[in-house]
Amino acid sequence: MKEFLKNTRDALAYSFSWLVICLMAFLLIRRGDTIRVMSLVRVFALCLWGAVCFALCFKNAKLQKKGFLFSLTCFYVLFIPVEIFLFYRMGIFQQKGSAGVWIAFAVIIVLLYLAALLINERMKKKAAVYSEKLHEYQRQSRN
Fold first, then answer.
1. Considering only CA atoms, which of 42, 61, 54 is closest in space to residue 12?
2. What is the pTM of this model?
3. DSSP string covering 116-142, please?
4. 54-73: per-residue pLDDT in tens?
């Protein structure tokens, strides 16, 4: 449980700080807009759910044994519906909720998944060696 909480904290810190920086840059470009507290709360909720999903799917020993694609698929299934809901609640898709925007969003998700499939197939042997070396290093560093 301690390792799960540590991984969740690390993922949350990284994703929340990155999204807040992106949000600030976006608002600076629009000139004059301010960040609302409710927007930060929703971004935090999105990042927290993403961090929990990440820790569950990618840092769980049982799921790691089933392979990267299984973990990625679990992550997508858990995270994307919540992401869509929170994007809608943040107003990202609310005012421009045309079919084109939703199709673009879906295409981006599918393309990222296909890219992961391609990378996984091309790098399967190297990934196995790398993962084994990484696990060995982690075991040594804990002792």
1. 54
2. 0.67
3. HHHHHHHTHHHHHHHHHHHHHHHHHHH
4. 999 888 888 888 887 888 88
